[in-house]
Amino acid sequence: MVWHTGNGIASANLIRQEIALFLGGCLLILLALLPPVAAAANILIVANVQDEAHAELIENLRTALSRDSNNRFNVRTIPLSSLENATQEEQNIPRGDLIVTIGTVAAQKIAQLKVSAQTPVLSILVPKANIDDIIRGRSGAANSGQQHSAVYLDQPLPRQLELVRLALPGYDEIGALFGPTSRMLLPELENAAANKKLRLRERIVRKSDTLATALTELLTESNVLLAVPDPLIFNPYTVQNVLLTTYRQKIPVIGFSLAYAKAGALMAVYSSPAQIAQQTAEIIILAAARNWQLPPPQYPRYFNIAVNRQVARSLGLEIPDESSLQRRLRQAEDGSS
Amino acid sequence: MNKKNLVPAGASRRAVGVAILTCLGCGFTMINKTNAEDMKIGLSEKDYLGPLPTVLSATRLSQPLPEAPAAITVVDRDMIRASGARELADVFRLVPGFQVGYVSGHWQTVTYHGLADTYSKRMQVLVDGRSVYTPAFGGVQWSDLPLALDDIDRIEVIRGPNMASYGANAVQGVINIITRHAAQDSGTQVKAMGGSKGVREGYLRHGGAMGNLDYRFTLGHRQDDGFDNRNDSKRVSLATLRTDYRATPNDTLMLQLGLNEGPRGMGEPATPDNPTPTDNEHGRRINSNYQQIRWQHSKGSDEEISLQFFHNYHKSSESWLTPGLPILGGAQLPMDASVTAQRYDLELQHNFAPSNQWRFVWGASTRLDQVTSPGYLGTQQALSHRLYRLFANGEWRITPAWLLNAGAMMEKNDITGVDLAPRLALNHLINANHALRASLSKAMRTPVIFEDRADTKITSGSLLNHLYLGNRDLLPETIVSRELGYLGTFPQAHLSMDARFFHDRISLLIDTSLVPYPADNVGDRKTRQFMNGDTATVTGAETQIKYRPRKGTQLIFSYAYMDMDSGDQRIKYSRTAPVNSLSLLAMHDFGYRVQGSLGYYYADQVYYIDLPKKNIAAEMQRLDLRLAHLFKRGEIAVVAQNVLGDYQEYRRQNGFDTRWYATLTLSLQ
C-alpha cells in the first residue's frame, strides 16, 4: 500500500475510514448470520407526494419503521401521479409485501388496479365513510381475496362524547347535524350517547339550503354542538355560518380537526399525521411478524386535544388544560376497553 | 366586548386610494380554487386536514362580561324583536341609564347620564366599526342611518367613557352596533308592516354565496306620519349591501355600501310655543350614504391585523320662507339650513395575545371631517377637521383571579391640539359566579365643527339677527369617571345581575353665552357664542338583572338612579338626567308557536338643554306589547305601543298616544 504524502490529519482520516469500513463489513456479516433472518420487507407507499400532510406522514413512517430493530423495511414511495394513466390491466406496481395507501384517491386507485392479488393493502389518512365504501365495494370484485385494512381519519364517536363529558360537565344535550354522507353514523352516535348517559339531538340535512334552518332549530334544543364530518355541512364555506350562529347563542362546538379549533370551535380532538404514522408503523411491524395478516380497520390510537382558549374565555368556560384532558380521556378509554 | 372595533381616518385621498387598491389587490389575486372536485367525491381528507378560515377572531370574540374593563349591556336580536321597536333609538330604553327622546317623528336623541339636547354629543356610536355621529353638530341622526333593524346581529353598549378604546366622543358611552355576517343570512326574506300613524314598511332581504364570497343586500321603504298635528312625517328609501369575501383562510375582506334617502317633514308655524319666529313648516331631503371596506388578517385565534377605510356622506337639504316678519314690515324671508357632512377615515389595528396572561391591541388612525353649510357656518366653503390617533390597550391577567386593563389614546386634532385619554380597570373574579371591578378613566370631547366655526346669521340686506357664533379657542370638555362594579350569576335562581356605582365629573362643558355682535360697535345686540363653562357631576347607581326561570321565558330588568349636580350658571344641567329610570322586558314562549313579550319603561322628568322651561315634558311611562305567531316559513306579529295612554316625548307638545302595527315576515327559498 502506498502512503500518500500529505498532512497528517488527512492521513489519520483515511485510516479511520478504513477501520470503519472494516468494522462495518464485520457487522454486516454478523447481521446476515443472525437467526430470524428477516429478509428486507418491501413496503410500497402510494401517496400524493406533493401534499404536505402526505409527505409529513411518509417521513414519520420511515423514521418509525427504521427504529424497529427486528425488521428491515425497504420503503418505497410511488407517486400517485405515476398511476394516473394506469389501466386496470397494467401491473406497473413493483412487487411488495404490503401496499400502504395514503388518502382516499390512492385507496380508490389501488382498489381498481389488479395488483398482485396477494399483496395486502393498508389505507391510511382516509375518512371512515370513504374507506368502508371502498372495502365493501371490493367484496364482489375479482381481487376480493386481497386483504384491505385501514386506519381511519375519524375519531371514534365515544371519544368525542367522553371529551364533552370531561371538559363540559353538565352539557348533556348533544346536538349533531347529519348529511347524506354522515347519516349512517347516526345509529352509532345514538348508541354511544346512550352509553354515556347523554341526550342526542339531531337533524338530518339533505340539501345545503336547509342547513341554516336545521341548525337554528337544533340549537334551541342542544347545549353543545358535535361536528360530524360531512362535506355538505362542514366545509370552508359553511363554517362561517355554523360558528357564528353557535357563538351568538353561546353554544360551544366540538370540532373534528385542528383547523376547527383554530377557526373558532371550542375544542377539537384530532390525530396528527405523525400520530397516524406511529400507529401505521406499529401495525406494519406487527403484520410483518404475522405473515402480513392485517388487523381489521381501526380508529386512530393516538390523538391530541386542542382548546381554543380565546373562545373558551369568551364563552365564560373553564376548560382544563389539554394534557390533563388527554390523560383523563386515555384513562377512560383504557378503563372501558 | 369588541376591543376597539373602530377607527378613524382622514387620510389624504392618495393614501386612501393606495389602501383600497392594496386591499382589492390582495383580495383578487388570492382567489381560491373552488373545492368542486373534492365535493364530487364526497368526504375528503381535506375536510379533516385542510385549513379553515378563522371565523371567531380576536375582534369578533366578545370579552366575557366579568373580565371586561367596563359595564357592558348586550342587546341581542331576540331582545330587539321582543321589544317591538320600530325605530332603532327605542332599543336603548332597555339599557340602564339611557334616555331616549323624540324631538320629532324622525329625530331621536339618545343619551346616557344626561346633558342632552337635540343632539346628543357625548356618545360614540359605531356601526361595524364605522363612526356615525355627525361631524357638524355631534349626535346621531338615527332615522337617517342606512341600516335595517333586521340586519343587526347585536348591540353592545359600553356604559361609561371609553375613549382609550373608542376615541373621541366616547365620553359618556359607546354604542357598538354589529350587523350580521353575510354568511348568516341565506335565501330571501320579505317583510311587510302596516299600522297607525301612517306606518307602512316593506323590506326585501336576500343573502347568498358565490364561491368564497358571501353577500347580503337589503332593500327597504319606510314611512310614517310622525306625531299628530306636527309636520314631521318621514319617507325613507333604504338600500344596503354587505359582502364578506374570504381571500385565503386567514384573510377576509368586508365591503359595505349603504344608502338612506327621502323627505322628512320639518318646522313649525309661529305659535307661542315656538321660540323661533323664522320657523315655518317645510320639507327636508336626506341623502345619506356610506362606503366601507375592511381587510382582516388572522394569524390563528391569537393575533389579527385589520385595515379599514370608510366614507360617510350625509346631505340634508332644506330651505323655506319664513312667516311674515314684523321687523321687515310683514315681508317673508328665504331661509336655508342645508348641511352636507362627510367623514373619511382610515384605521389600522393589531390585536395579539403573546401568552395566556397578556392581550394587547394597538392601532393608529387618521380622519377628515368636512362640513359645508352656508346657513349655519356663514361660508360656502367646506370646513374641515382633521384627527390623528394612536391607541393601545393591554390586559394583564395577574393571577387567574385578578385582571388589570390599561389603555390610552393620544389624539391630535385641528381644534384643540393633542389630548391624552387614559383608563385603568382592575377586575377581581371572586369565583366562577361573582366578580368585582374598579375603574378610573378620563376622556375628552372635542368641539364639533358647529361649536368651533358657527356663524349663523339672518340677513335681509342688513344683518337682522346673529344667532350663533363659534369659538376657535374652545377647550375640549373633559370627563373623569370613577366606578365600582359587580357582576354575579346565581345559577340556582336562574338569575344574573350587574350593578355599578359611578361618579362622573364633566368639566369645561360647552354651551352658549350671550355676547355683543362682533359686527356692532355698541353692545346692545347680542349673539350666542360657544364657551367653556360649567362643571357637572353625576353620582349614582344602576343595575341590570336577567332572570330566566325556564327555557322560553326571560325577564330583563334595568334600573338607574342618578343624582346630578352642577353650578347651573347658564343652564340647569342638574335636571338633564332623570333621577329614576327603569325598564322591564318580559319574553315568554306560550307553546303552539306563539310568543309574547312586554316592555315597560319609566323615567322621571328630563330637562333637555335646548328646551324653554315651559316646554319641558313630564315624567314618562310606557307599556308596549307584542304577540307573534311563528309558522314554518315566517312570522306574523302584532305590536301595541304605549297601551297605557298618552305621555310626552322629549317636550310637552309631543304627545305619544297608543299606536299599533302588524308585521308579516316570509322566508322564500
Question: How many E strands of chain A?
Answer: 11
What coarse outline of chain B follows from CA principal-axis ratios? globular
Helix content of chain B: under 10%
Question: What is the general shape of chain A?
Answer: globular
* Average residue pLDDT of chain B: 87
Q: How far from one another are the termini of chain B?
A: 35 Å
The average pLDDT score of chain A comes to: 84
Number of separate domains of chain A? 2
The CATH topology assignment of chain B is Maltoporin, Chain A
- Total DSSP E strands of chain B: 37
CATH class of chain B: Mainly Beta
**Unreliable runs of chain B:** 1-41
Q: Give the oligomeric state of the chains in this entry, treating copies of one chain as homo and distinct chains as hetero.
A: heterodimer
Our Rg estimate of chain B from Cα atoms comes to: 25 Å
Number of individual domains of chain B? 1
Keywords, separated by commas or semicolons:
heterodimer; A: 337 residues; alpha/beta; Rossmann fold; 6-stranded mixed β-sheet; 5-stranded parallel β-sheet; 44% helix; disordered N terminus; B: 669 residues; Maltoporin, Chain A; 7 helices; 7% helix
